[in-house]
Amino acid sequence: MQSLRRRARLAAAAAGAVLIGASGFLFASSAQAQADIVHIGAVQGSIEDGDTDFTSPLAGQTVYVQGVVTQETLDPSGNKGFFLQERADATDGDANSSDGIFVFNNQYSTLRTLAGSPAREELGANWTVNVGDEIVLRGVVGTYFGNIQFSGGSAYVYDVVETGLDPLAEVESVEIDPPDDAKASLEYMRRHLGMQMTVPAESVVTAGRDVFSSGGEVWAMRGDAEAAQQDGYAARAYRDAHPLDTVEGNFDDGNGYLFVIGDLGVRATAGTTESIIAPAKTYDVITEAATGGVYLSFAKYAVEVAEDLVLEDGLEPADNEPVEAAGKHEASIASYNIENLYDTRDNPNSGCDFAGNTGCTDPEDPEGNVSPPFDYVPATYAEYEAQLQRQAAQIVEDLKSPAILMTQEGEAQDVCSVNPAWTKHSDLGEDRLVCDLVNTGDANTGGDGAPDSIQELALVIAEYGGPTYQAVGDLDAADTRGIMTGFLFQPKLVGLSNVKKWDPVFGDSPEIDYPTEADAINADVQNPKALNAALPQEVVDQCTSSGVFACNGYDVFSRAAQAAKFYFKDKHGRNIGEIYLINNHFSSSPNTRVLHRTEQANYVAAISATILDHQRRAKVLAGGDFNVFPRPDDPFAEGQVIAGDWTGPSDQLAGMYEDSGLCSLYDVQVEDHPAAAYSYTYVGQTQTLDQMFASPALLREVEWTGSAHINADYPADAWDFGEEPAYGRYGVSDHDPSVVVFDIK
Question: How many beta carbons lie within 10 A of that of residue 253, not counting itself?
């Protein structure tokens, strides 16, 4: 009866009032239908099993809804909002429709009242947003990237029915319990969009905190989920192809039991945009229940909790099969994505690496075009140096100072050289390097053949107490944005081999068997050497700007593969054997650029095959960030439509498995230590993007191979929120480095 009296108040008011219609004209009290309240569930729509259209059935219409303000939100840019939900005894009774909705209110803490309404009469022109108020709201049903919502620009308060309510005592708060199946889980979350939802105590973090423009997020699962019951380090979410996934077989469930916890509510509770959700790492346990509204952003449904998470330390990810140091007569090689290691020097040879630059465009690589503002240059040198120091500590402490590192995402810049005054004890800081920041091209006298950011990383490694490294890299490996692959090596242990013009890879006429014209850079006689070629015409004819047919320009690589040949030294510095390295950073996004990435794998396979054709017992290691999963994993299930009559699996690395002459070291890892066989986390589950492939001669000498779990499971840096890294050196990159240890006797 109480609910009926509240709704009757609106009807009585409408009978004796003249209201302003949505289009601005007057309508008389006889136009009662325009003031009729609809259920929020009618706005959200009833989601049936198997539905794929989640749009509101009332999209674009002006409606009246009634509900309790359950929670306010605040995003990092200062935009505000609130969740509105019907009382538990006043819903439409449909379990498939949500009883809550989000109201976006831009930078405002108030919402306008409707002219001629009870709210206007009682409160004046504005109502102050207040948790616990029950209001009648008139608004236009809108959407923002799938999130059904009202906007303060077209929403008005008609009436304030009651104040001072305890929202969680009045509305239904559901304890989150999504089904395992990914599609069913999506339907489940959509049925609760805008409603209050509770994350129960004993839930387990499955991916360390990530930081996005909209704030921070933590992925988790219920503590009673089957995956959480697995032993030790296996108690986490693996992609379905992984042998430790909880349901046997590939592409079986999609790990729908995972959920996201966001911090729009945490920030509102704290009253500051500088707040962010507590740093969490994989395996941490949430010890106290947390409640918040369900919000859709970046294609993810998140519970935007009002209070920060209370966490208990779980297992230490870094202790999951840690890297073994190379022993006597052994060497180790690592591959490490150093995640946008840009320095704070304005490269005069680039128009797209610094604030104030005009940007870069390339008609041959349109997807690599770069326009201001620039997101990769650190805000200060101190921030950049902190990144160097943390990575240096990882290389020494966690990677055990490998003989050679293949790096990805270093800045493609060489306008500096080592300051002659530098020593590992000199404490020169920003003056470690001396640079020519004025002249361009051949007139620039600063370069020394070592890309600046990884050269500076080498110096910081020595300052940290690690060994002396030398940086090398071919700037032709760079993309338009200005990142490239590179190499760090210890001159005490290895040297760069001399190469001749007739060398089948490093010479002036490489013999790489690929069906298109080689780029001009392939004629350079040098070591290391970037290699590239035109995409096959049949691929170019299908290239699009996005999706599975997307292309990063019309070469095989937007970031050219880079080959290098090193020789190992005995204690007297004599050559005791060579190794060929192929350093890679394939195009990103496993489920897009599928044809392009497939050709990248084919070209790398052709490089390695060329080496092995001329030297059958050569030791060859191809590694890097392949940006797609190893077999049997795949972004497309068997029979899943990729495009037209093209169905999964896409098998984008087929060339590496079938034509390269190399063997996947992931297969060794998943057999020897499956719980540690991954290099990345995404949407709460592990996956492998960083891989190594070894020739038979090298494979026979492998003593250990794996990933150092020092980044992907830890919180991302949050400098924008004024926060120091929560776990010291861990979490400085979004990728875990790969390492292989082998005999060099």
Answer: 19
Q: Which two tokens stand for residue 735?
A: 């990728």
Dihedral of the alpha carbons of 552, 556, 560, 565, in degrees to the nearest 10:
160
Kindly give the interhelix angle for 381-393 and 452-464, rounded to the nearest 10 degrees: 60
Rounded to an integer, what distance in angstroms lies between the CA atom of residue 468 and that of residue 401?
Answer: 10
CA–CA distance, 102 with 489 (Å, rounded to integer): 54
pLDDT tens, 603-619? 999 999 999 999 999 99
Residue burial 358-396, b: 16+ Cβ < 10 Å; e: rest: eebeeeebebbebeeebebbbeeeeebbbbbbbbbbbbb
Q: Two tokens at 676?
A: 């540690």
Q: Tell me the C-alpha distance between 355 and 373, whole Å.
A: 7
State whether residue 611 is helix, strand or coil: helix
Burial class (CB in 10 A: 0-12, 13-18, 19+), 271: exposed
- Model pTM above 0.85: yes
d(Cα 322, Cα 326) in Å, to the nearest integer? 13
Instruction: For 389-408, write each residue's pLDDT tens digit.
Output: 999 999 999 999 999 999 99
CA 152 to chain centre: 31
Distance CA 487, CA 199 (A): 45
C-alpha to C-alpha distance for 95 and 114, rounded to whole angstroms: 32
Amino acid letter at 120? R
Residue in this structure with the two tokens 């001329």, named with its chain if needed: 614
Q: How far apart are CA 86 and CA 40, in angstroms?
A: 7
Measured in residues, the chain has a length of 745
Q: What's the CA dihedral at 605, 607, 609, 614 to 10 degrees? A: -170
Query: Alpha-carbon distance 196 to 40, whole Å?
Result: 14
pLDDT grade, residue 254 (50/70/90)?
A: confident
